Every structure is written in C-alpha cells, then in structure tokens.
C-alpha cells in the first residue's frame, strides 16, 4: 500500500480563529497564530510537516477555509 503525505492550505484572511480544527487534527499540525489577519482574528496555521491528509480539519471547519492536498510517496 502506498503511503500518503498530506498538506493543508488555510485562507488566513477568511479564518476567524475559532479553533475547531485544532483538536480535530490527529497529528497536531494546526495551531492558532500569534499574528492577526485583516479582520483582527488570530488565524489557524500549519505548524509542522506531519500532515497525513486525513481532512478532519477541513470537514469540521465551519467557514470552509481549509484545503487539504494528498500526494502518494514511494
């Protein structure tokens, strides 16, 4: 079975920093930034490279600002 490497892209300007995605991630890839976006929210950001592409974060995001990518690795 091929292994899968994942990656996420978060639209930081649309993220309101609710944090629902953080406990949904099994590998602790997401955290709230210390910086703020244009609306003044501490947005979610990727903090490590351990994403497995499970898409739990994108599923629970109420605003749909997370896109998950998956790539097979040999």
Automatic annotation (TrEMBL):
<feature type="domain" description="4Fe-4S ferredoxin-type">
    <location>
        <begin position="6"/>
        <end position="35"/>
    </location>
</feature>
<keyword id="KW-0004">4Fe-4S</keyword>
<keyword id="KW-0408">Iron</keyword>
<feature type="domain" description="4Fe-4S ferredoxin-type">
    <location>
        <begin position="43"/>
        <end position="71"/>
    </location>
</feature>
<dbReference type="Pfam" id="PF12838">
    <property type="entry name" value="Fer4_7"/>
</dbReference>
<protein>
    <submittedName>
        <fullName>NAD-dependent dihydropyrimidine dehydrogenase, PreA subunit</fullName>
    </submittedName>
</protein>
<keyword id="KW-0411">Iron-sulfur</keyword>
<dbReference type="InterPro" id="IPR017896">
    <property type="entry name" value="4Fe4S_Fe-S-bd"/>
</dbReference>
<keyword id="KW-0479">Metal-binding</keyword>
<dbReference type="GO" id="GO:0046872">
    <property type="term" value="F:metal ion binding"/>
</dbReference>
<dbReference type="InterPro" id="IPR017900">
    <property type="entry name" value="4Fe4S_Fe_S_CS"/>
</dbReference>
<dbReference type="GO" id="GO:0051539">
    <property type="term" value="F:4 iron, 4 sulfur cluster binding"/>
</dbReference>
<dbReference type="InterPro" id="IPR050572">
    <property type="entry name" value="Fe-S_Ferredoxin"/>
</dbReference>
């Amino acid at each position: 079975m091929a292994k899968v490497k994942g990656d996420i892209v978060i639209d930081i300007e649309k993220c309101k920093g609710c944090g629902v995605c953080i406990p949904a991630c099994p590998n602790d890839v997401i955290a709230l930034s210390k910086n703020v976006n244009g609306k003044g929210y501490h947005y979610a950001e990727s903090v490590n490279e351990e994403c497995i592409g499970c898409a739990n974060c994108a599923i629970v995001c109420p605003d749909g600002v997370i896109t998950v990518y998956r790539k097979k690795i040999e």
